[in-house]
Amino acid sequence: MKEHLPEYITYWNEVGLGRFIRVFWFFVIFEFTRYVVIDYIILAIYWFTSKSREKKWTEAQGQLFLENPFISIIIPGKNEGKHLFKLTKSLAEQTYKNFELIIVDDGSDDDTPMIGRNLEKQGLIDLFLRNEQRGGKASAANLALQFSSGKYIVHLDADCSFDRDAIENVLIPFYMDERIGAVGGNVKVRNSENSLAETLQAIEYLKTVSVGRIVTSYLNIYKIISGAFGAFKADAINDVKGWDIGPGLDGDITVKFRKSGHKIYFSPKAICLTSAPRNFKILAKQRLRWDKSIIRFRVRKHNDVFLPHANFKWNTFFALFENIFYNVILNFTWWIYMIDLIVNFSSSLKFIILMNLTLYIVFGYVQMLSIYLFSERRKEEMRLWKFVWMMPFYTGTFLRLVRTYAYFKEYFFKSSYDDPWNPHKSSRQAKIYKL
Amino acid sequence: MLKALNKQLNSFKHEDFTYLKIGTWNLTFEKSLPEYDGIILSSTNDSEIEKTILAIRTHENPTIYLAPIYFLSKTANGLIIHTEGVFNEHKSNEITRSINEKVARITGGQNTAHKSLEIKLMNYLYTRDGKLTPQKNRLILSGYSYPFVDCYYKGEDFEKYKLFKQCIKNEWLTDALEDRVQLCVQCYDSYMIYKETCPKCQSINIQAHDIVHHFPCAHIAPIKQFKKEDEDEMTCPKCDKLLRHIGIDYDKPSVVFSCKNCDNNFQHAEVISECHTCSHQNKLEDLVEVDIKAYKISMNGIMKVEHGTTVINEENSVSDRMKIFEQLVMQEQSRTFIAANSSFVVEIDIQSKLFKILNASFLNQFWKDINDITKNYVSNPIYSCRKEETIYLLMIDKEELAVSNLIEKLRYNLSILLEDNLGSDVTLVIKSQNVNES
Question: A103 with A240, same domain?
Fold first, then answer.
């Protein structure tokens, strides 16, 4: 290895900037520009405007507590009974107290009904509803919505826990700008030290959720309110008639909100900790489902956002375009880039691969720096630094392969309709009506 | 026959039997009653009938309290259960003969007075068919009355269970579960009205709605949102599609109640049991459960009646233990103690109305638990015995202070146990006595 180092350095000294950009055009044009240049510019603006934003935030916080609106926290799920008691404890600790808790058991086949009824009897849950037949997450969420009476609807996943001020912080943005119809919470990975898969997901979540969504929210192209933690104006969610059948129903409802003219906001201070898949096999299954939903909802169902019509909105156009471009188009472009390298630079591949790796590792640490600057858990997240060098293999290879496979399956075979995540009876009907 | 009966005012002879016809009860009947084979109630006045039946059945003379009693005519009077029914010229003489033969076997021609109700009950069952079957009776709190026995327990509905328990303990009776009734926790009445109520405000003004789930668009809501008034068709309010086929494009996965009083929504209505007598709203888990049993005289019971003794005499073993206990106490009284020590008799007396209605196995377990607890706290060698609801402990060679401490400890722990098992309706008295001061 050591003997090749001078040869490697000499090679790249002689190449020059023009050839360097020719070789790494994919990285330079798309990834470096988007995830380093644009991100850092936006984060710098975000940093410089923080004082005025803080002032606005404090005023909104005052208004929230002055009005003290009654809100509904809804949690749909199947076989989530084991999480319910912890969840009620986590919510009981919240600084914002004026809420009702509605849990919908979507046909669980474990002890969930017994646990739920018991907690309802003890007054820890305000309303526990059970559907004897499973209908899917969307219908469970819609059932909770039917019986909710709050001004705002907060949708949570049962296996999450929350910072004490999380509910407060997800509500405050509604008082900063009345055009805001929905607010997304900041979802982070809990117990990231349990396995390598969870550690890498923790870094990924910090990049794409915690920092990525500050940027997209600032650019007003924020396009997904996580199902794990999101808040909606009740009248707005009723206007869009609740959730449609999933998978990917959280992204779908965000687009529906955008299309109906509501602003979407990301609240980085509303921290929620979730359990990530503990191994790569489970993770691949989860990501296959998520990635298929991009084709199903963004490319097919909501492709009208790209067409000129009375309700056309540029920010919705860009939000979905950015999503489709960076996830779908660039995913396939990357394979073209690979072919380009193999065909045109086959003799230098040994230097290119090594440089590529070097670039992405440095790129990873530069991104990690932005995470570090914006994180409120710097000390806890310090241990993640030593795993950042693995991210090119995780995002650049593992997730890319999963994504490619998912897009292929969904685009050509509409396989999301066969996903057991939804009951067959619902998926079959959704397929018939192209929903 | 009936004409002949009407002609004679007080006596009626049919075949070989002479019956005394009673309209209004008076004490002069007591003397003449043993001379008759049976009694016929001719009054139609319910209170007169009741007075007569109770006077006869609660009498101490076996030839009187065991006498066959008949109603002259068909009646709806509930007290008929304490008699042989309506007089029937074909069957009644046979019944009278059978009863009187058995009565003669019991008394042996002697004119003895019976005071113990246990003995009287055994004699009654022996002279009848040997069975004591509970009869449904809405006027009784538990909803059931027992022939003969209820003549003694008017107004004290649960006392009789103590009698049955004692007879079972003596092995004179066997029992079989006939029914299990749930009683109001406040007045012990069994006449309950069950209602589905709102768990929040207890209002009965609640309504159940089917929940409809439309598969294609995942809309789910109460059926009223899908159905317009006076229309059979169901249309989805979210996607305007017609709902066609349950199980294919929609289903009804659950039912939700809504309360019209407080707007509460819930899936499980709370069932309340309202007592018809005192209107107390009982929660189902609070209702007092009582086993209603049918009893039958056992071989031991028959031996007791016929020979005055039984094969297995549990009562003796209890009294034997008491005798031993008393002897030990006497020994302790004659002992000389060093220092300030002495021996003490500790009496633990537990009283509860529930003892009368709880079943035997529960009570056995209960007394066993009490015994175990006392053993846990008394480490010195002791002798103990129980008589009815009182446990006696003999504590040997103890300081008075140590005994007082022990009693406090016992009182505290037993109170918790008793309250957990029997509720607040329990009285616990623990006292000690120095054997040398008694």
Answer: yes
User: Looking at this predicted complex, what is its ipTM?
Assistant: 0.85
Task: Give the nearest partner residue to B253 out of A127, A131, A146, using CB atoms.
Answer: A131
- Structural domain including B246 reads 199-268
Take residue B203 and report the two structure tokens written for it: 């209002």
Q: d(Cα B398, Cα B337) in Å, to the nearest integer?
A: 10
* Interchain pair A107, B222: CB under 8 A: no
- Domain annotation covers residue A300: no
Is residue A1 classed as helix, strand or coil in its secondary structure? coil
Provide the token pair at B373. Answer: 């607890």
* Contact in structure between A171 and A67 (CB atoms under 8 Å): no
CB within 8 Å: A128 and B267: yes
> Do A39 and A143 belong together in one domain?
no
Mutate to test the interface with B, among A429, A432, A435 (most CBs of B within 10 A): A429
Long-range contacts formed by A417-423: CB under 8 A, 24+ apart: A419/A247, A419/A289, A419/A292, A421/A136, A421/A137, A421/A246, A421/A247, A421/A289, A422/A136, A422/A137, A422/A245, A422/A246, A422/A247, A423/A133, A423/A134, A423/A135, A423/A136
Question: Residue A228 is part of a domain; what is its CATH number?
Answer: 3.90.550.10
- A344 shares its domain with A409: yes
For chain B, the maximum distance between any two Cα atoms, rounded to a whole number of angstroms, is 100
Range of the domain at A82: 67-279
Q: Looking at chain A, which residue has its C-alpha nearest residue B243?
A: A429
User: CB–CB of B292/B178 below 8 Å?
Assistant: yes
Can you read off the two tokens belonging to residue A62? 């005052």
Contact with chain B for residue A364, Cβ under 8 A: no
Establish if A139 touches chain B: CB-CB under 8 angstroms. yes
B210 touches chain A (CB under 8 A): no
The CATH number of whichever domain residue B375 belongs to comes to: 3.30.70.270
- DSSP for residue B191: -
Total tally of structural domains belonging to chain B: 3
Q: Do A145 and A238 meet the contact criterion of CB atoms below 8 Å apart?
A: yes
The answer to whether the pTM exceeds 0.90 is no
Q: Does B144 reside within a domain?
A: no
Apex A227 CA angle, A221 and A230, nearest 5? 65
Q: What is the pLDDT along chain A (435 residues), one digit of tens a residue?
A: 667 778 888 878 888 888 888 999 999 999 888 888 998 999 999 999 999 999 999 999 999 999 999 999 999 999 999 999 999 999 999 999 999 999 999 999 999 999 999 999 899 999 999 999 999 999 999 999 999 999 999 999 999 999 999 999 999 999 999 999 999 999 999 888 889 999 999 999 999 888 889 999 999 899 899 999 999 999 999 999 999 987 888 999 999 999 999 999 999 999 999 999 999 999 999 999 999 999 998 888 898 888 888 778 888 898 889 889 998 999 999 999 999 999 998 888 888 888 889 999 999 999 999 888 888 888 888 999 999 999 999 998 999 999 999 999 999 999 888 888 888 888 888 888 877
B170 in a structural domain: no
Answer whether residue A299 is part of any domain.
no
C-beta atoms of B247 and A426 within 8 A:
no
On whether both A245 and A337 belong to a single domain, the answer is: no
- Which of A254, A279, A304 delimits the end of a domain? A279
Q: Are residues A222 and A187 in the same domain?
A: yes
CB A95 within 8 A of CB A113: no
From CA B144, how far away is CA B160, in angstroms rounded?
12
